[in-house]
Design brief:
There is one protein chain. This protein is of the alpha+beta class. The chain has one domain: Hypothetical Protein Pfu-838710-001. Helices cover 23% and strands 36% of the residues. An 8-stranded antiparallel beta barrel has the order 1-5-4-3-2-6-7-8. A hairpin with a 2-residue loop joins strand 7 and strand 8.
Length: 209
């Protein structure tokens, strides 16, 4: 077992997600707010587990990500979950080589557990990030920043707060996989290309309560 994540230093990441049925309309609406579009990148992510597969049980995410940079990230949940926002502690460092970092983790007895892919478009409004994420099972808007700013941006965009999603993309995938009886473990575009998955059928299961 790792040390208590509550005792670790590091900033809090605060966010919510919304499903986007109409990406173009939402993007145009965001850009009218004086936003800055920082571009779109393709992400390859690998999550890791320890020898006893205890990280997920502790609500810990250890992830290696490659887009236009390579980053190693540690995320841990707080002991008292927030019912309005997804809040976790995040520690992140940029590394120079994806495969070497993976080998180091494996040398420390961590193993690759799950891979997932997405396209991410980053738009910034003041100090709030709006991330249009194209996942293999659908498109979502993630709003990241301070709580009052997140709520203000969501209201200005006409998003219904009761339809916010606090689950991460792998947790959403587990719901889709369970409901549709999917056998594959990796969340990739290739795996989903052979399915008739429709995220809209599962949205009521995703909304925060």
């Amino acid at each position: 077992m790792l040390k208590n994540p509550e005792t670790l230093p590091g900033p809090l990441e605060i966010e919510v997600k919304f499903h986007l049925p109409d990406v173009k309309t939402m993007r145009d609406r965001i850009l009218t707010m004086g936003a800055t579009n920082c571009g779109r990148v393709f992400e390859t992510n690998i999550t890791f587990e320890d020898a006893s597969n205890s990280l997920k049980k502790q609500a810990i995410l250890l992830r290696l990500r490659k887009d236009d940079r390579i980053r190693l990230t540690f995320k841990s949940s707080l002991s008292r979950p927030d019912t309005q926002f997804k809040v976790h502690r995040e520690l992140e460092v940029e590394v120079s080589d994806f495969h070497t970092c993976q080998s180091i983790l494996e040398g420390l007895d961590f193993h690759a557990d799950q891979a997932y892919e997405k396209w991410r478009e980053t738009i910034v409004v003041n100090n709030t990030k709006l991330l249009i994420d194209t996942m293999p099972y659908g498109v979502f808007l993630e709003i990241e920043g301070q709580k009052p700013h997140i709520r203000d941006v969501a209201d200005r965009l006409g998003l219904k707060w009761e339809k916010r999603i606090l689950a991460n993309y792998l947790e959403i995938f587990e719901i889709v996989r369970r409901e549709e009886g999917l056998s594959f473990k990796d969340l990739t575009f290739e795996n989903f290309s052979a399915t008739n998955s429709d995220i809209r059928k599962h949205l009521p299961l995703l909304y925060a309560h």
